[in-house]
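Sample intake sheet
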Amino acid sequence: MLGALAFNVAAFAPFSMRFFTSRNAGSRAAMIERSPWMWRGLCVLFMAGAALTVGGLLLLTLDLGIGWLWVGLAAAVAGAFFWLRITVFRLTAAPQQVADPPAVAGSWFRGYVLLTQVAWILFGIALLNTALPSWLGWGLIGATAATFVLYVITRDLPPAVFYLLMLVVGGALLG
């Protein structure tokens, strides 16, 4: 839950909201140039959120003791690797390169989205095999399936969606 919270803090920060909703690459590059420390701090928070979420999923996998769930964890780890790769690019490339969404996205983003969706669906199935309320598993499966449809239609998806789902799962597990 801590990872999902960190990721969403970064995603919904005013700087991120302005940056990721802007359609003007020049404006986006200028934002990074004007506030490089803000940009770097948010990138680190995005990376920490992804890594901590995978750590939480590892603990959940160990706790549930469902052997095949390791496949879901592997998908989550691989998806997080793709996300970390994208974020490292954002940290190290020139602002003009980072401001061009196709340069950042491409196959790395596609891999991140699809692997994360596989992981979330497998964790949803695993949650159905526990004493937890079934709405939690079905909700995770249904919401993830909806993200898949949205991604197929739009070829884009705000990554925060995945971490909002994990906030719900984490809250239910802690509650």
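Comment: The chain has one domain: 2-174. The radius of gyration is 16 Å.
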